[in-house]
Write a structure and sequence with these properties.
single chain; 21 helices; mainly alpha; about 625 residues
Length: about 625
């Protein structure tokens, strides 16, 4: 897969597409915002993250320090200039984004714009609908702002050395704009958190019971077990007092509920008064109920607030840190809830394993199973049974690759193809109140999201066989994505051209989808981080290596007792070399048992040769 090289190729293709001459044959170039969709806060954030995110996650791809930028990075970004010009231009791209996506009063907006599609194409969407803030806009703003702040912090020493007052002032202005957008994004996520409650005998309750009742028990027993399993979750919900959410009636003993993030700030969400800037807290419009897609993007964004890089660099202000703690509570309780539902009962079959996942509003899609995997993976890997749970989740991911016609060929008229295009539609309930038609959010990122989940699960696994199986499927998913790359035109080497894999599709695209491309970039970053992590350890091989080293050390001690260490210079050097080999093997046996095993075998072979040579010398043969 070569993820590092793939990321460089994406950069090269992105600069070729986006950094354009202002007129035919003109020398002056400007950044072209947008792609397949028109410029908006969501799409432009994805476009900019394609440049910023890999550089902050992978040290070898950084370009903020001109003296430390590698030749490979300079080659990929050469369209933007030399080692000094590249960070200046990227700083100005960040500045342009921050200034572009504000309202008439200069307040940051987080709108979805052209990502929202009309259910009835004959009706025209109102400007208010296009401008409404969406949860994905809040979620994207967090990694965008954090990567931008990291980049600017790394670029600051270079700016200071230049001594250019204009650049210093410009950088400080950009940092202020970033923090304003970041604060608005955090408060937006606090106000779009949703807790939906329902009775066991209404439509939503019946759907949830049907989903989790995998062993056919009476409904009353399922409700009781659900309530028992939710005790800690309900207790945590009581502590949520800032923004939307809270218990919302879940304490009633007969109630069922769901938690997560809605598609926007929920209707009647309270303002958060004790913040320095309340201007981004616009009235809520969304249904007060969780959406699985927006829950996943919100959780991934919140996790970045607590990444080692952010914590180590102290990127957040005290106010941002205080509000982020409220988001962490929501993140932890949401992960716990969906892991509980996904594996409800803990028996021989989980609800998650009954693919496809069925939502409480009666929808069934493989894509929803993938989203639930995304929410539950960290919980399964951290506090739930370790590899046993992760292996079961991995089996679901492998099945989804088959059912999504990625590792298995599509049949004529196969309905599974629709998951890739036009994708899964999610109705944005509440947006119709803004004097316009009902609208949906299209989700078309099944393949790159599956690749992300495979690498995420593989990185948490310790069992070497299970990890290898997931990596094998990941290679097949990457082969699939490679075939979907746009092959020619201005957008060559970017994504997505699904018709190249699924010939029955009618659409042919000339421009890139930044929504799809950023998902591929995120998967490549995960793959690169995985490649630099410690290899999986085989428990059986580790035990065997320990046993082998016990024998090697025993034979070595016998040779020392026999006097080999005090023999001639050549023999003494050889026996010392064997001792060093055994010592090194003992040092690495816990981290790299395969390496230790190989060193132990080498030591035993060398010892056997020395013993044989000693016997030959004694007998004169």
């Amino acid at each position: 897969m070569q993820p590092r090289q793939q990321l460089l190729d994406i950069w090269r293709a992105q600069v070729a597409y986006s950094w354009r001459a202002t007129e035919e044959g003109g020398k002056r170039k400007v950044w072209h915002w947008g792609g397949r969709n028109q410029s908006d806060a969501v799409g432009d954030a994805q476009q900019l993250l394609c440049l910023l995110y890999p550089a902050q996650e992978l040290v070898e791809l950084r370009y903020a320090d001109p003296d430390a930028t590698s030749d490979a990075v300079l080659g990929a970004l050469s369209g933007l200039g030399d080692a000094v010009e590249i960070p200046i231009r990227i700083m100005r791209l960040v500045k342009d984004y921050m200034e572009r996506h504000v309202d008439d009063e200069g307040v940051p907006v987080y709108s979805g714009g052209s990502n929202m599609h009309r259910v009835d194409r004959t009706q025209k969407a109102s400007p208010e609908q296009r401008a409404v803030d969406v949860t994905e806009g809040f979620a994207l703003a967090i990694p965008l702002c954090l990567t931008a702040l990291t980049f600017l912090a790394d670029f600051q020493p270079t700016v200071d050395r230049m001594g250019r007052a204009d650049l210093i002032k410009e950088l400080e202005h950009v940092q202020q704009a970033i923090h304003r957008r970041l604060l608005g994004a955090i408060t937006g996520l606090l106000r779009s958190f949703a807790v939906a409650t329902f009775d066991a005998d209404d439509e939503f309750g019946r759907q949830l019971i049907a989903l989790i009742n995998v062993d056919g028990q009476p409904d009353r027993k399922i409700v009781r077990r659900f309530r028992e399993a939710s005790e800690e979750i309900i207790a945590t919900l009581r502590t949520i007092t800032v923004g939307s959410g809270g218990t919302a009636g879940v304490e009633a003993p007969t109630k069922l509920f769901e938690i997560g993030w809605s598609w926007s700030v929920v209707e009647k969400a309270p303002d958060i008064p004790d913040v320095s800037d309340t201007s981004t807290q616009r009235p809520g419009r969304a249904l007060d109920a969780p959406y699985q897609y927006f829950t996943v993007v919100a959780l991934e964004a919140i996790a970045t607030l607590f990444s080692p890089r952010v914590m180590r660099r102290n990127l957040l202000t005290e106010e941002e840190q205080r509000l982020a703690q409220n988001l962490q509570v929501r993140m932890d309780v949401t992960r716990a809830y969906w892991a509980m539902v996904a594996s409800f009962g803990g028996g021989s079959k989980w609800p998650l394993e009954d693919v496809p996942w069925r939502t409480t509003d009666g929808l069934e899609y493989d894509y929803y199973s993938l989203l639930v995997c995304a929410v539950a993976t960290d919980t399964f890997g951290a506090s739930r049974g370790g590899d046993d749970d992760l292996i079961r989740l991995g089996d679901v991911l492998i099945e989804l690759a088959n059912r999504g016609r990625i590792t298995r060929r599509a049949l004529a008229g196969d309905q599974a193809v629709q998951i890739h295009f036009p994708g899964v539609k999610s109705l944005l309930t509440g947006i119709e109140k803004l004097d316009g038609p009902p609208m949906v959010w299209n989700m078309v990122d099944f393949a790159p999201l599956l690749l992300k989940r495979l690498y995420h699960a593989a990185g948490l696994l310790v069992t070497i066989e299970a990890r290898a199986e997931l990596l094998e499927v990941a290679d097949l998913v990457w082969d699939h994505l490679e075939r979907r790359r746009i092959r020619e035109g201005a957008a060559a080497r970017l994504w997505d051209q699904p018709k190249q894999v699924y010939g029955e599709l009618g659409n042919w695209f000339e421009d890139p989808s930044w929504h799809f491309t950023i998902r591929v970039v995120e998967a490549m970053v995960l793959a690169a981080q995985f490649a630099t992590s410690e290899p999986a350890r085989s428990r059986s091989l580790e035990d065997l290596a320990h046993e082998l080293l016990v024998e090697a050390e025993h034979v070595y001690d016998q040779e020392l007792l026999r006097g080999s260490g005090h023999a001639g210079p050549a023999l003494a050097q050889e026996i010392r070399s064997v001792g060093l080999t055994i010592s090194h093997a003992k040092d690495v046996v816990d981290e790299r048992p395969g390496t230790a095993f190989s060193l132990g075998v080498k030591a035993l072979i060398d010892l056997d040769r020395l013993i044989a040579a000693g016997r030959d010398a004694e007998t004169g043969v």
